[in-house]
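Below is our example:
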Amino acid sequence: DSISSSRVNCASGDTITITSQWFSCHDIEFKFATQATAGTVLKNAGGFYSDIHDVTITSPNIGFEYSGSSPIYSGRHVRSNVIMTNVRLHGDTFDGTHDVLTTNLYCIGSTENYPTYIAGSVGLKIAGWVEGCQFTNCAYLLFERAHDINGANHNTITNCYFDSGKYAAALYNSNNHTIDNCWYSNGRGQAGVSGQGLVVYDSNNITIAGSRMVNCGGSGLAALNCDNLSLIGNVIANNGYDANNTYYGATVHDCNNI
């Protein structure tokens, strides 16, 4: 199956649900006249081998979903050159998928409401069985959390930008992740919120290399209850954005083999 057009005018609710193999979608804009409050634009539920590129999505509730359940997990997808603007809830949702390769993606949250954030909004939301995914040259900003990664394994994030989250970007209950040459600047939310740039906890074999945690509301990096945490050549600077500047560059508690 293949979809290619100049524009699809959308209404709230799921726009396209993909359950087959070899789906292709490219050179198209999905546009909501007003902010969507329900549904997902491109929902890949158990499909395989999709190729999505050169796509723009304007004012969705959720941009993409990759999901599946045992024994049929969704997997082996590629995405590139994707722009999502004025996203209400999530840019990406991953749950029950593997081997999704994403390159050159830009995702910004609800600009209609900023500086107020949509409650529960997350740019990149990963939960449950997700492994072997790669994100390269991606940006997620203006969400409560730029990313929330829970219970995932063997994923790689490279040259990505996580900025202007109300709270810290979070990675937890996960194993064997690599974060390389990324930017974190979060935790400067309204009403006195001071959060970290990136928080990692209850996780093992995490590598963070060549990355920057800068201008965060609290500490640039916080790690708790982790084993085999590798921190290599990172810059953690100018944090503690509140007037008292009482935060450390990094805080580490109950971790082994750093």
